[in-house]
Each structure stands twice: as structure tokens, then as C-alpha cells.
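Run log, item B.
One chain of 86 residues. Sequence copied directly from the ordering sheet:
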Amino acid sequence: MLVDDVDDRGSVIVVEIPDTKTHKPRTFTIINGSNTVHAIDVFQKYRTLGPENISYKRLFINYRNKKCTVQPVGVNTFSKFPQKFA
């Protein structure tokens, strides 16, 4: 996913997924619900943590030692997240 695929409209985030397995673009929205964790606030904080000197437009970047690095997160690393969380 790219940074351009996410449109932050303040109280709503619109996410477009242009390339899917079925080759049909998808769009979904994220809103703050009644959960204790507000997704929009988490996303906005994530966007501010990124370094300024990134030459690519990937949305997900590496985060280590309480800092974001300029290294993007690849497909293999991203697929290992559920295993780490469990």
C-alpha cells in the first residue's frame, strides 16, 4: 500500500486498495467507534512518526527501538505480524 492510497479526512479515513487478488479495486472507510482504541488517532500518530527523508511512498515502514527507519516493510515481514502478536 502507498501513502496516496489513504485519504485522511479528519473524522473519516478512506482507504483505496487498487490491486487485489481478484483485480477489482476496493475502498473502505475507517471511523472512530465506541472502542477504547480510536483507529483514526492511532493512524494519525503513525503518520507523524515517520522520518522526513523517505524517497518512496510506501505506507508501512520499519519501526525499531521506538523510532521509524527508512526501510519499508515487505510482504514477508508483514505476513509474520500475526505470529508475533500471538
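Observations after the first pass:
- The chain has a mean pLDDT of 81.
- The longest strand covers residues 12-17.
Flagged for discussion on Thursday.
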